[in-house]
Specification:
Blueprint: H1 66-70, H2 79-101, E1 103-104, E2 109-112, E3 121-126, E4 130-136, E5 141-146, E6 165-171, E7 178-184, E8 187-192, E9 201-205, E10 211-217, E11 227-235, H3 238-241, H4 253-262, E12 265-277, E13 282-295, E14 301-302, E15 309-316, E16 328-335, E17 338-341, H5 347-359
Parallel strand pairs: 2-4, 3-5
Antiparallel strand pairs: 1-2, 4-11, 5-10, 6-9, 6-11, 7-8, 7-10, 12-13, 12-16, 13-15, 14-15, 16-17
GO molecular function: hormone activity
Protein name: Meteorin, glial cell differentiation regulator
Subcellular location: Secreted
Length: 370
Amino acid sequence: MRTSPGGSGDAAAVDAGAPGRGEGASGAAPVPAPAPPLAESSGRDAGWRPRSPVRPRGPGPGAGSAAGRAGPGRAARGPAGAAMWALRALCLAGLGAAIGGGAADQCSWRGSGLSQEAGSVEQLSLHCAEGSLEWLYPTGALRLRLAPRLPPTSAAVKGRSPPRVTACIKPSATFRGAQLYLEREGGLELLLPEAPRPHARCFSWLPHEKVALFLQATPQPDISRRIAAFRYELRGDWLAVLGPAGACRPCNDTEILMAICTSDFVIRGSIRSVSNNAELQESIIAVSATRIHRQKFPLFQAGGRPGRPVGSIRTPLRCGVRPGPGSFLFTGWLHFGEAWLSCAPRYRDFQRIYRGAQRTHQNPCEFPVD
């Protein structure tokens, strides 16, 4: 558990992901080698939408012109009419490609395998720090390149290795019809099998490494409805900050001071209860908040004692969180819309640490202390 050095181990911290994050799976079934990467966009420009054809200007019907004699809905003969019909045909062709290939933006993609050949590989590229993919009736394969435009989390320092990028994949509860592989350095590593209730997985890579996700459809005996869907998150040097080796160790003074400045939520409160989920390998801490210093989303809402918001914070089951008395300062990160713990010092320990940093002008940010 990551409490302050003087803490009693009543709260814990979590690494970047839910159970199973970061470790590679072995024994992946052999799959056809993925096609070489294409350009930034897919072969089908699924995000393009045709504009309505503009009718050529001219006298209205009955004015004696060719356009007028053509009548409503007809193209005028001559160069103008031919151009209009060409534009209309081009628009219909683009619309058909968009419907067949799926809808995409810079963050998410949704499409169907019904228009895809069994042995084909469709190339996709997403550029956001988070998003989703939904593939109905999987056929063939998808090769997904994750190229987020992330702000630099830490400047490159001479003598230090460059920061890594971390991605986490959370499959839907009904993930069916495909298996997800991590493609790295020409090899494939199984991330998500086609299995009941697959768990979230995390992995990381250096900026110069070429990685991609390879989603391959599995053979099916029938044509019943199947959907391979998942959400993804990409962060900066996430695993380095919350690595597996330090997931349950106490936070030191420097980590506590940084946590109050950079975390997605900073909540002062007490532990109401702790429940364990053996299947997900998670502990869920029910917290009654006495003061909300920061929360990027409304994680804590009214519902407990009068004037005291309540909420839940998750941590790995292996950290052995136990309920304990007293007031804590809970800090952590959002992970697929859920609060995960990083540091949770007892509040009296935090006061001592922060006031000591203030006296030596080493506090990284200003923070209200009662």
